[in-house]
Amino acid sequence: MAAQFDINELHWLLDIVQSIDVGVVVTDRDYRVEVWNSFMENHSGRSATEVAQKTLFELFPEIDQAWFTHKVETAVMLGTRAFTIWEQRPNLVRFKSYQPITGLADEMYQNVTILPLRSTNGATDHVCLIIYDVTGVAVNKRQLESANAQLRELALRDGLTGLLNRRHWEQCVEHEFARHMRYETPVSLVIFDIDHFKAVNDTYGHQTGDEVIREVARVTRSMARETDYAGRYGGEEFVVLLPDTDLNGARQFAERLRLAISKLRVEHQDRPLQFTVSLGVACLDTKMSNHAELIERADKALYRSKESGRNQTTVFQDE
């Protein structure tokens, strides 16, 4: 009776292994497959008969053999379970994802448990792999991370233009000032605003004014380098912080920007509007006591451009 009970118990166990929604693979110590449940059959497209006595590395060439065998041998030597998680390695074997998650993952994300199996004589002569489909969890976490990154980005950006907002670009100026004081690297700042912008708003309306601001921002962003910081000061006023750029380089950049903006056209009721900008340029030097002085100098240079007739670039000269 006891023997019959044991056999029945084994059948139950095999039924459970076949029906659970995780992959179960048992290999010998040469990584030849001996147990291959229905989860593995369904996702690999290979039956248990087809894979019997084939090695995992024949069946799944994508497995990093050196990494995997080291992990298994360590688990066997210590007599403990080992784990791999999708955040460190997205999957052990490549299975397509069939979960209804609107195509956000082509492949199945997997967590894997490596379980050394002891025989009745105490020797570890088999290894069990339990493969969990965690695609839903992984995709949800990736989406959450992406959403959080977008929120962080939005917190740094001006809503109308997409340029850095004032709080953030001033922090960038402060950071570059500290770097300049330590390494004496050149840093320049360009401040500019749209000439006679109030007249644009008063004559053509605020929607047209907003479109002018967006177009100026677009050109500014396209002309700035990846290492530059383009931001909106407020209203129709903008800044571009230029790390590793001396006064002459900043003046050349400002002139290129001025000419590019002068060629812009914004349509209003089939009538193209043209506009210009006035610019002020200043460069950090070791005499400055804080980053605000750089902003103040560039602002003074901008004011001189306006006084001198607008649509020009003025470089701050220390009097």
UniProtKB/TrEMBL annotation:
Signal peptide: none
Reaction catalyzed: 2 GTP = 3',3'-c-di-GMP + 2 diphosphate
Domain called GGDEF: residue spans: 185-318
BP terms from Gene Ontology: cell adhesion involved in single-species biofilm formation; negative regulation of bacterial-type flagellum-dependent cell motility
InterPro entries linked: Diguanylate_Cyclase, GGDEF_dom, Nucleotide_cyclase, PAS, PAS-like_dom_sf, PAS_4, Rev_trsase/Diguanyl_cyclase
Pfam families named in the record: GGDEF (PF00990), PAS_4 (PF08448)
Protein name: diguanylate cyclase
Organism: Halopseudomonas xinjiangensis
Lineage of origin: Bacteria, Pseudomonadati, Pseudomonadota, Gammaproteobacteria, Pseudomonadales
